[in-house]
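During the second year of the project, the team shifted from modelling isolated chains to modelling whole assemblies. The rationale, set out in the original proposal, was that interfaces cannot be judged from single-chain predictions alone. As a representative example for this report, we include one of the complexes processed in the last quarter. Its constituent sequences, exactly as entered into the pipeline, are reproduced here:
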Amino acid sequence: MELSGMRNGLRMKEIHATLACNLDQHVLLSALPLLAAEKVDAIEWSFDALFRTPNIPDWFVELLRTFSHARRLVGHGIFFSLFSGRWTPEQQQWLTHLRKVSHEFKFDHITEHFGFMTGENFHQGAPISVPMNERTLAIGHDRLKRMYQACERPVGLENLAIAYSLGDVERQGGFLDRLLEPVNGFMILDVHNIYCQAHNFRLDPMKIIEAYPLDRVREIHISGGSWEESEYFEGDKIRRDTHNDAVPETVFEILAKAIPLCPNLKYVVLEQIGEGLQSPHQKKRFQQDFLRLREIIQSSAQSPTAQNDFLPKGEILVGQAKEDEHLHQQQMQLSAILENAGDLASAKHLLHNSSLADTDWEIERWSDHMLDTVIQIAQKWKAGFRPPAEAGRPKQ
Amino acid sequence: MKVSKSLLQAILVGASISAAASSCSIFEDDIEIHDPVCEDENCDGECEGDDKGHVEWNCPACGMG
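Output from the structure prediction step:
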């Protein structure tokens, strides 16, 4: 039942103030006062992040079960790599794992990210964008259906922070709408990702938001990030979605404007990583950010009951997994270039002499400052979860 | 939402003393997705953070941009 609150005699749907709560020491210690004060309506858990960690503490499982029993647990995947051209055993294993945890916990819904993961190893890489054409659409439809079959819950996708070009920013909303349609899926509107794109492409954030299918937004994310020096952005810095700092004031302002535009919104999630929550001051700021999120929800002009349950309206059938070998080869080439390029010039040279040239990838339109940023991201994550100082590209 | 006092206490103790309280596990070229409710006593999966006392680097549960 979606209904709970009353306002002006109208029954209003409830929007849950939600914490991204993973098995991280600093996140949990920061969240404790909020949990104790009953301020956390729901939690989001990255169910695929605990591989190679066999000794999950009983208390963490109990925390998940507590929210699961109340239908206040949502699952957020990281590694599925929705648009990989080749179907891999690791993706099948990911689905098997999703099926298993979905029996163990009652997720209200399951989400993943738009894009594909760089890197040959399943758990090493970062999500980046793909050409938005009929071929990638077919792959995405197939993978979303498989996600739904595994979890039998509403499935959704999050918009990416990183875009290669202005066209990439402008196309993502319409493409997401077409992508989600067969499973009646929903989208996560990550407001900090929008904030990054608005800064990095000098756009009005609300114009970007309005280009998304806002009736499909069931979840909103907010977070903080970081500024990166760039020699390719007219003296300005690049905004990165690194989740290691407090939420900027502008992001709160965008959130307040976005909530009334999303009639099916159910969860607003604060995301931050433990790296940015080590000092008492950082923990306090995190708690203040969450309480601010709650206040914004409560003071927002919310629409009456949600119209869409985001469950498929017909039977979901899948046959053999769709594959696109040409797309796979292009992705492998792109990953290798991004992960190994010594500098921007050599990356551009390699790209222009690759199979991505003069194709829907539109590498000829990629902005220098964003290509340089994507190179840094790919090189940061190619070795998995290593300290950034070790994993990053040496400064030129 | 209400969380029991005993669970809050367990989280406080567990998160304060346990480096296992991190989803950031160093791993080799292993593609295994581990069962979060693993009951296999012979399982050799290991979080490297256990040895360090704490984990200092980013967790890709979010913030990969």
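Residues 325-391 of chain A form one domain. Chain A has two domains: 3-299, 325-391.
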